[in-house]
User: Fold these one by one.
Assistant:
Number 1:
Amino acid sequence: MDYDEPLFFHVIQYAHHADRDVVDMVSGNPDWDPPAALREGLHEYADAPTAAFQYPPSDGLRELREEIAERRNVDPSRVIVTIGGGEANYLAMARAMERDAGDEFVLTDPVYPYYPGKAQMLGGRVRMVPVHENGQLDMDAMREAITDETVCIVVNTPNNPTGAVYPRETIEELVSLAEAHDALLLADEVYDHFDFSGDFESALTIDSDHRIVTSSYSKTFAITGFRVGYAVFPESLVEKAKTRHMLVNVTGARPSQAAVLAALQSTGPEYYEDVRDSLRTRIDAFCDALDAAGADYTRPEGAFYVLARFDGFPGTMENVKTLIDEAGVAGMPGEAFGTARDEWIRFALCTPRAQEAAERLAEYFS
Amino acid sequence: MDYDEPLFFHVIQYAHHADRDVVDMVSGNPDWDPPAALREGLHEYADAPTAAFQYPPSDGLRELREEIAERRNVDPSRVIVTIGGGEANYLAMARAMERDAGDEFVLTDPVYPYYPGKAQMLGGRVRMVPVHENGQLDMDAMREAITDETVCIVVNTPNNPTGAVYPRETIEELVSLAEAHDALLLADEVYDHFDFSGDFESALTIDSDHRIVTSSYSKTFAITGFRVGYAVFPESLVEKAKTRHMLVNVTGARPSQAAVLAALQSTGPEYYEDVRDSLRTRIDAFCDALDAAGADYTRPEGAFYVLARFDGFPGTMENVKTLIDEAGVAGMPGEAFGTARDEWIRFALCTPRAQEAAERLAEYFS
């Protein structure tokens, strides 16, 4: 299993060189607009005095950490502003390894490929636990997999690629399991603003010294290239994570942090609601057409990906290329996310042409 | 020995709370203006379409890598755009450890404190080699220190804190030593635009599979907070470094990269020359006043720091605080950089009040 990025580029490039029009449903890069205040914030920053162009505090601009802390109802000292969710997860997983309490990472299958990639880079072993057909965790299997060798349990809710949103009981039990086995629970909540079920529960609502929550503004504000995310650590774990952050990156980019701060301060709830509405419309249209194509699929409770399975057409790279050439639709092969969904193809709803794509699929498979 | 950053903040905070006016010569944050094109580039980027706000390639915007590669006369495939010089050095040092060719880092004393901090975080041992009084490397001592256990030799030219610029023969011998002992030479050239001696020689002019060169736009363009640096790896080492960069940070901040690209494309040599002229004036004024104060000091050949020693007044944190309170000048204690210069105090010339500070010192010590 390879990481997301190279495979992702491989599919994108194949689609670009295709001899026909292709609807790109490969990448999870938002195609909608960031908040207006974000662009204004960046303009304002561009005219700031030279002193504002120098290092922010290593753990992020004070006002930004305070805005985050207030929203997440934690003390600002527990917040580290990171280079997107990517660094936030790296810091959390590295912090778990540093505790000398084992070396095994328990991940789900299917999985966001960066997690096993990071685990291996950190010298950890990886154990992947298949989820239920509906994307929910198989808690019997999780209980069996989590042992005293477990250093960290990594979950993503709302989930990429399954679209599942884990209920409160799941998060509670994961925290209990982490505590019982002296492991850490890492809850990656990067899609927290994309919950369509109303069931999303942040792991931060369950007090524990054994869980770390990460998130990012990449998807929230449609700015994957700005690299502003954050991690919320327990007090007992945060100092060493701050040291690593400083030794690896010194600090994050201040223009990006200033723009995100401006967006946080001036963006009302209607921005987030409008984006969700637009995504709901895309989900409905895409799923209706999948019905017409006779495909199995999971309707996402959160995030913005749909996993679909077409009879006799497993989610291999070869079949993904065939779909690009013959149907004009590009998705990600399910085998990129582990073995549990290698029959499936992931379609990202980051295009206004989601319905058109689904119609092409319906026609191709009819 | 602690890292630069916390000690640095400690001194800054002490100076801020002093009961008098203090000239801040603690931090190496430029106080001069970035190129006009940089601000314009950021404004232009702020109005770009949403697609331009998404992930750049993991190793950096293609045009930016090409600009860097052309200036450094290397193939763009060898360039990774990083989160400032900090991540560039981290990637280089981590790459050295991954080769399983030892575990010892050979550093200079005095040293930029992030190097030993990174080495320790990576699980390496640290061996520090005192430099000559004039800041040049003691090559006999270096030859003795570099063994088959050496994984990486880290040097910084022009040097912080000594101001030394290493001649070509030094760089050539360091490359030879690295090759002979299957180690890597890491040359951190972050001050490459601040050579007043005319003797600066980039390690890139010496072809070898055993040297990595890092640099950054933090000082070059007076934007330490933008976090845009780069590393140039040998072909044989670059792929694994790219993977680590991706797994730790995914990619760098695109607003920062876009602004730096605009500055590179539109900034003529007079910008760099003007900054150097202004620094030369500060160096002369400061050193003249140190003469009047009867201090030992090293006149920098490059970078923008002056190490000074006042008779019977060693560079301890306590004495640095005394200078803040009684002379109104804040510097960095020499003990922050190792033991070889613990009698000295480092003054950063990042203030228009350098001459005034020197006059205060002259008066205090007269």
Note: Residues 55-266 of chain A form a domain with the Aspartate Aminotransferase; domain 2 fold (CATH 3.40.640.10).
Number 2:
Amino acid sequence: MTTSFAIPKMSGRAPAWNRWTMRVAELGLRTGVSIPTIKYYLREGLLPQGERTSPNQARYGDEHIRRLRMIKVLTEVGGLSIAAVKYVFAAMPWEQGEHATQAPGDAWPAAEQHVKEVLAASEWHADLDDDPGRTLVAAVAALHELGRSDLAGMLERCATVVAELARIDTDPDDTEARVLTLVLGDVVLAALRRLVSRKDTPTLTGIPLPGKPYSPNASTCER
Amino acid sequence: MTTSFAIPKMSGRAPAWNRWTMRVAELGLRTGVSIPTIKYYLREGLLPQGERTSPNQARYGDEHIRRLRMIKVLTEVGGLSIAAVKYVFAAMPWEQGEHATQAPGDAWPAAEQHVKEVLAASEWHADLDDDPGRTLVAAVAALHELGRSDLAGMLERCATVVAELARIDTDPDDTEARVLTLVLGDVVLAALRRLVSRKDTPTLTGIPLPGKPYSPNASTCER
């Protein structure tokens, strides 16, 4: 299956839902993304153009904030490349109305509490300053920041299936088996989830697997 | 938790189980790894030194083949970096006896058949030439090549839990929700699997998450 790699044109008229209140500097301050990086995303079509106020200046709106946060989540938490984010954005209709978002500072403590409760329920005592723990908090916080707290139940669902996987896991003394099961299991789970998603949303199959360099039409497992 | 990053010393006496039959060129031919890359792995301690036959020549044994295959599997299928493989190898005792391995050419068709059967059982009709399909075949074939066919049942177990995750999945018309669930779900699943593994094999927690650069003591989700 080949999927079109085209980004919808966004350089024409500004969408009606945008209010043009910010200069690029404010956009940077409010998202933690540097101005050169924002300009790069504008050139690449990952962000819609702002409204020109002079030949060298433009103003930006709430939708820019939301997309910048989405880019940060997909790259920093999800580990996607910029090319992969482009692919994902091309598949998104971007019309799903507005969501009430939380500021990063507010989202983090609530997310941390949520993760603690889920881990305690499974009797996994995690140090949330470790990488796996921080990643869980970052994922839940990201959903709150994007106004998608409705999706945070993902954590409980994942914890349930991981507990099932662990129960039938390999001999604890066979480190080689555990390493192979863990590392290959990550990509097997990710690949299967893309296959299942295909039924409803074919383009999702094309979201690259974690840890794979993104290559839209080439197979990455050449032997 | 900090984990030692030291590689066990492998440059001393050759282990007893090794038979020294190959020059480096044969090692390369039999594993598909280039000679400069093999020399890099030797320098980095990822491969034990061979037995010197002259100041400029050495011979290598079956264990070198096995380790080279393991490096290929972890990097090419599992998406780990070389630094992460170092970390993993440091945690492996490497004494689990010999396993009967299959040549790559023999392992692939059997793996393809296995993947087809598992997908058919779940009524997921996958094109195995797509990236997700090829990754599944590559993972199963890798286990056969490493003589760890005993672990290939991982595929069925993962298919079962993915089917469960999919049943309670998000609204098919909400592409944003599906993208976030898919991408963040990958890292959430991977993070939870590391937390659960910690109980039996603490070092496994340190295997970096897919898509994350390896940084042994730094947190990767700084905000």
Note: The beta strands of chain A are 51-54, 57-59.
